[in-house]
Specification:
The protein is an alpha/beta fold. It folds into two domains: 194 residues, Alpha-Beta Complex (2-enoyl-CoA Hydratase, Chain A, domain 1); 48 residues, Lyase 2-enoyl-coa Hydratase, Chain  A, domain 2. Helices cover 47% and strands 16% of the residues. It is built from twelve helices and ten strands. A hairpin with a 2-residue loop joins strand 1 and strand 2. Bound molecules: hexanoyl-coenzyme A. The site of hexanoyl-coenzyme A has 20 residues, from helix 2 and strand 6.
């Protein structure tokens, strides 16, 4: 992983991946995307990581795909870049939950990155938008699909067709973000705190819970309910659920082992 583009820290079960390309407003160059994808996959394979935070800087989460590189990409190169796994798929398919910590601009592919995460904590300066249409293209990292599912067709249509941005207050009202943290408060710390709560939970159950909630977007209700039931049954077979229930009855904190 390129330490310069993604700065990684792990503390109390939470891995923080900090995008670090300030000169280009964290625009997602090939190098940054590869570095972030590698970091996410490494965290997902690390049993010491119970939750991941992807954060940007104070004034920008990420300004989208790198327009300077995109300008020179022809159709063949675009088709080539669509083969294999991309960043947004890697983030969406990570089994470990991911919180996006967004301050300032989350635009285009940067917004799609936040949408691919499981929860979003925003500062009150956060602005979300899909400006692709102003460049003559459309979102390509899952934006049209995930945005419509989260905020509804009409609102998504307005954002995607006009490129209009929404602020943190609107994003909260639309159900796009989990919380908005005031200017003086540390938005990054709030995201880490939320991640820390998840990281303290039983790891196997956390992964199953994430999988079950995501299935709600993909499956009809009856299939989703059947899937949830299977995952519940598996959770009931873990050592951690015995520990969790004993801890409740014995009025103590559980010691989960991820088994
Ligand atoms: C490449 C970018 C960039 C981007 C900013 N920069 N965004 N470079 N790709 N997406 C560069 C600028 O060219 C400039 O470089 C430097 O960062 C500072 O940018 P400014 O515009 O001067 O900063 P500011 O005034 O603070 O405005 C910030 C901003 C604005 C609002 C984020 O930069 C902006 O609108 N950026 C483009 C946002 C966008 O259209 N995103 C969608 C991209 S398409 P120099 O060299 O002049 O210092 C996309 C498709 C996804 O995401 C498809 C997925 C498959």
């Amino acid at each position: 992983m390129d330490e310069q583009l993604v700065i990684q820290t792990v503390d109390e079960g939470v891995a923080t991946l900090q995008l670090n390309r300030p000169e280009a407003r964290n625009a997602l160059s090939d190098e940054l995307r590869v570095a972030l994808m590698g970091a996410v996959e490494a965290c997902d394979a690390n049993p010491d990581v119970g939750c991941i935070v992807i954060a940007g800087g104070d004034d920008y989460f990420a300004a989208g795909a790198d327009i300077k590189a995109l300008r020179d990409r022809d159709l063949v190169a675009t088709l080539d870049s669509g083969r294999g796994r991309n960043l947004w798929q890697a983030v969406a398919s990570c089994q470990t939950p991911i919180v996006a910590a967004v301050s300032g601009y989350a635009l285009g592919g940067g917004f799609e990155l936040a949408l691919a995460c499981d929860m979003i904590v925003a500062s009150e300066t956060a602005e979300f938008g899909t400006p692709e249409i102003t460049l003559g293209i459309i979102p390509g990292g899952g934006g049209t699909q995930r945005l419509a599912r989260v905020i509804g067709k009409q609102r998504a249509m307005e954002m995607v067709l006009t490129g209009k941005r929404i602020n943190a207050t609107e994003a909260l009202a639309f159900g796009l973000v989990n919380q908005v943290v005031g200017k003086r408060d540390d938005w990054r710390a709030a995201a880490v705190e939320l991640a820390r709560v998840v990281a303290r939970r039983a790891p196997v159950a956390v992964r199953m819970a994430k999988q079950a909630v995501l299935a709600a977007e993909e499956t009809p209700l009856s299939a989703g309910l059947a899937h949830e039931r299977r995952l519940f049954e598996i959770a009931m077979a873990t050592e951690d659920r015995v520990e969790g229930m004993n801890a409740f009855i014995e009025k103590r904190r559980p010691q989960f082992k991820g088994r």
